[in-house]
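Morning F.,

Quick status update on the modeling queue. The single chain you submitted on Monday has been processed. Sequence for confirmation:
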Amino acid sequence: MDDKLKGVFAAALTPLKNDLSVDYERLVSHCRWLLDNGCDGLAVLGTTGEANSFSLPERIRILEALFEAGIPGASLMPGTGCCSITDTVELTSRAVALGAAGILMLPPFYYKGVSDEGLFAAYSEVIERVGDTSLKVYLYHFPQMSAVPISYDLIERLLKRYPATIAGMKDSSGVFDNMAGAAQQFPGFGVFSGGDDFLLPLLEKGGVGCITAVCNIASSLSAQLYRAWQDGEPGCEDMQKNLIKVRQAVSTYPYSASLKTLLAHFSGADDWLTLRPPLVMLSENEKADLIRLFISTGFTPPSFG
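Structure tokens below.
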């Protein structure tokens, strides 16, 4: 278990330029800020990062840009799950070659109602084709978005066939019993909560941390809670309540738009205010409402320098 990822991971945003291309300089700066402010790692190329709005070459270039800028591979858990097995293999292979410590892998998500047999075959094809013993796969259970759930039966079968490769899961279902049950049923299987509201309860049930969008602005709060829990300090319940307040404010509007609005506000950099269609930014009234709600939580993010 010691060689597996754990702690607080940000589902990192992807900053964009006005022409919708990736702003690599701002991306690197943001990733460094996250690591400097409590994050144990970065889940880049995920839902919050708008990954499925980028082409395969764009996603590979994002990983390469982080590597070239000195962002440590040991802190990276990039999302590599695509609808195409060959795309997933190519992106995963590049991530592993660049030293990513773990891979967050959505199941193929276009076809709905597929069987566990089909999902096992898809994951198996990727693992076999990548063919690298350093590959560590974290399954991405997000049925509200993918409409392709990861069942316990599938987890059990994958663990039996690939015990050294299948390392854990990010559970973004919002169903606490599902994530806690996975942590308890599969010892050594690293279960991360996809929601800040379940960080402490999941840790108490054997989970290993969280991978959340809200960490883009409030990683210091999650980190404070995680360290306090690790050290057996008092007050963890109050820290969890404060984290929930922040999450509730941020989740008033869609996460990517909400978080980019807040980063623009607190950093003073309006360059954050770009999303790739079909996602759209908030209206001026929505921005003002969000900022008011966020400030009312009493939390101010650390300085962006």
